[in-house]
Design brief:
This protein is of the alpha+beta class.
């Protein structure tokens, strides 16, 4: 897989050297994206609930996932976005199964948003998924992310069975992109 470079950022396959930076970028993205006063979600709550993402426990899990993604024929795609200082500013993780693909995570810090990197990551994810249907979970108040997924054909799944609370506070919605004909990919 080739490295794609914008003026300020590089998208490349994740390596074990990126594991700690991925956790830090994910936590930073959470702090920037998910606060919601109505739901009682502030930076303190986020750090209390998901601070482990940037700690040993999160890094140990992530290391295994990154290692798995590096195996020939892996069913996982794990990409990182780095700035010119080689600091991780975002990432994508997708898993492809026999009959579907799942966005496990796609996060960008504010520094890397609004300049086409998310589109680059989505393009890579769609190529990796091929004709398979895809699902992603998104906070139902994250309008920016919802619009982004809709742009790529994801549709909100309707009904209570398609919603749940993450950490008993964040309302999560499932979005699905239907399967594509093999010649549509």
């Amino acid at each position: 897989m080739t490295h794609i470079t914008t003026e300020e950022f590089t998208v490349s396959p994740a390596t074990e050297a990126d594991v700690e930076g991925i956790g830090e970028a994910q936590l930073e993205s959470w702090v920037q994206t998910y606060p919601n006063a109505e739901l009682g979600i502030d930076e303190e709550w986020i750090r209390d609930q998901v601070g482990f993402l940037a700690e040993k426990r999160g890094n140990d899990f992530r290391r295994k996932t990154v290692q798995a993604s590096q195996q020939p024929g892996s069913n996982q795609l794990y990409l990182v976005v780095k700035n010119q200082q080689n600091r991780v500013r975002g990432f994508l993780h997708i898993t492809r199964e026999v009959d579907h693909a799942t966005f496990d995570a796609i996060y960008l810090t504010q520094e890397a948003q609004g300049i086409g990197i998310a589109d680059e990551l989505m393009g890579r994810a769609l190529d990796f998924a091929g004709h398979l249907p895809m699902t992603v979970e998104v906070a139902d108040y994250n309008d920016r992310a919802i619009r982004f997924y809709e742009k790529y054909g994801f549709e909100k799944q309707i009904g209570d069975a398609k919603k749940h609370l993450h950490r008993d506070k964040i309302p999560i919605m499932v979005m699905k992109r239907p399967a594509k004909e093999k010649n549509e990919v």
